[in-house]
Amino acid sequence: MPDDNCRQDTAASDPGFAPKDLSDNRPLGDWHSRYQSDAWRHIWVEAIYLFVLLTAVVSSMLAVWLMYPQKHWHLSDQNGLTFSRYALAWLSGTLGGLLFAMKWLYHSVAKQVWNLDRRLWRFLTPHISGGLAFATVAIIQSLGVFDPRLASTPARTTALGFLVGFFSDNALAKLAEIAETLLGPTSRPRNEHEKQEKLQRTPKE
User: Fold this and answer.
1) Domain limits of the chain?
2) Distance of alpha carbon 41 from its chain centroid, rounded?
3) In this structure, what DSSP letter does residue 123 have?
């Protein structure tokens, strides 16, 4: 079993999602798994969870697209449109986060950096992405900081939600800029240098 230094070296030299060298640092003909059977049980639990969630999300998106829930609840045209917009935003955001988690799962297994401590990340990322996409569409529709046409049709809402979910870090950074514009900057020092400057300006008792 590789020691901690070996794992750190492997992680440090990790070339990313789509490396030119597809050998995963293996010699030719080395096909055996580097994980023990106990680890594979945990890996398969995560894979099955993500696959079941993928099936549920895609099925729910299809149902909303065909307006089954709207008809079942006898929603008016206006309420049905509102429901479709926000339901598709949440579901497509979840889909984006889900595909990102799936990609990281097979990537981390192949690169031998998979570990149980990341399980919560893989379980929760799709749902966090869904909520983030939902909130982004709500901000677009209510605050006027973006062009409302970005979510004017089901297809546009779905595309926007997926992008927010898959690139959630970028979306969070943009939302932080919006929050600072609307609410104002915080007075908390951003780094150690600013903290030291603030302390120097504070008069001593």
Assistant:
1) 36-186
2) 24
3) H
Contact 122, 101 (CB under 8 A): yes
DSSP for 97-112 reads HHHHHHHHHHHHHHTT
- What is the spatial distance between Cα 136 and Cα 175, in angstroms, rounded to a whole number? 8
pLDDT one-digit tens code per residue, 70-107: 999 999 999 999 999 999 999 999 999 999 999 999 98
User: Using CA atoms, how far apart are residues 82 and 133, in angstroms rounded to an integer?
Assistant: 15
Rounded Cα–Cα distance for residues 151 and 86 (Å): 10
Could you tell me how many helices (H) and strands (E) the chain has, helices first?
A: 8, 0
Cα separation, 51 vs 61, whole angstroms: 15
53 CA to centre of own chain = 14
Neighbouring C-beta atoms of residue 89, cutoff 10 Å: 30
- What's the pTM? 0.74
**Alpha carbon separation from 200 to 170, 188, 190, 193, 194 (Å, rounded):** 35, 15, 16, 11, 10
3-state secondary structure of 16: coil
Q: What angle do CA 29, 30, 35 make, to 5 degrees?
A: 160
Q: What residues contact 98, with CB distance under 8 A and at least 6 apart? A: 50, 53, 54, 57, 125, 126, 129, 165
One-letter amino acid for residue 80 of the chain: G
